[in-house]
Amino acid sequence: MKKLIERAAKDLVDSDHAVALTGAGFSTESGIRDFRGRSGIWTKDPEAERRAYESYPRFLKDPKGWWEETLDSPMSLLDDLSRATPNPGHLALVELEEMGILKCVLTQNIDGLHDKAGSKSLLEYHGSAFKLRCVSCNARFRLDEFDLQEMRREDRLPPYCPSCGGVIKSDIVHFGEGIPEDVAAQSLQEAWKCDLMLICGTSAVVYPFANLPRVARERQSVIIIEINAEPTPLTHEHISDYLIEGKTGEVLPEILKAVKEIKR
Ligand code: NAD
Fold it and tell me: 98 and 66 in one domain?
């Protein structure tokens, strides 16, 4: 493990354009459960996965009904996410960015923790639970820009975009919904131009995000490092050059320490 940590630190220091890709495993050490890890929400409750696939078709059919149901139920999720704090893995990525080594974080997480930690160059591929998005023009809004509960009481749901009049939904990208074009294009650009990709805490089975390492791998010179609790398809298919098997909240601070040693 120590050897791999030193190797990752050297690879990072030698890179010109390093990017980090993160998934739900990154936030388990902040107390947010992942989906497919050993204690994941769907590993334990496969029925919850089925329900998740029904959400977006429901929104398309009846945005008003979708908003009413959303406001009735999952605010407890938002409360949980609001209370969560970044872990040492999030903070290590911020420091690597501040040192000029890490150029961008691309996350699948909707928990807002990279933002809370202070990552500046951040692409939230699956959106954020703390934002709303117009489905027509992709304008993003903070949750508190709309008083959704009052709109519900006054029977004014769904909310509409103040600039284009499109319907507004949560910024979270639901199953079956396309990735917003702006984020999809910028993420693809990062995958094309990076010379090092650090893939952290993702099972790498959710597409199109899982395609980004494959896009990067088209260039043989790119170094792809995985930090994950267990091997993934990227490991098995040799998309990644090496896997550091462990917790991101422990491995990343160690890598940061080794980077500082080299830079000293
Ligand atoms: P996933 O649940 O499919 O896989 C998580 C992976 O991380 C697993 O391989 C697991 O073994 C590993 N892991 C768990 N804890 C770890 C740790 N401390 N250190 C290193 N590895 C760890 O997650 P995914 O690939 O991100 O796909 C799930 C989808 O669900 C994503 O699209 C994401 O948007 C969404 N999701 C987000 C959150 C969040 O925002 N925190 C939580 C659950 C699901």
Answer: no
CA 157 to ligand 1 centroid distance, Å: 32
With beta carbons less than 8 A apart as the criterion, state whether 85 and 145 touch: no
Q: Which of 170, 196, 228 is the last residue of a domain?
A: 170
Residue nearest atom 38 in ligand 1 by C-alpha distance: 24
Residue 76 has pLDDT above 70, yes or no: no
Q: Looking at the DSSP assignment, which residues form a beta bridge with residue 124? A: 107
- Using DSSP's 3-state secondary structure scheme, residue 225 falls into strand
Q: pLDDT tens digit string along 6-42?
A: 999 999 999 999 999 999 999 999 998 877 777 777 7
Compute, in angstroms, the gap from residue 134 CA to the centroid of ligand 1: 26
Integer Cα distance of 229 and 240 in angstroms: 15
Q: How far apart are CA 190 and CA 14, in angstroms?
A: 18
Distance CA 15, CA 132 (A): 35
Are residues 23 and 151 located together in one domain of the fold? Answer: no
> Given its phi and psi angles, is residue 169 left (phi above 0), alpha (psi -120 to 50 degrees) or beta?
beta
Of 202, 225, 251, best ligand 1 pocket probe by most atoms within 8 Å of the beta carbon? 202
Rg for the chain (alpha carbons), in Å? 19
Residue 97 structural domain = 1-32+85-126+179-264
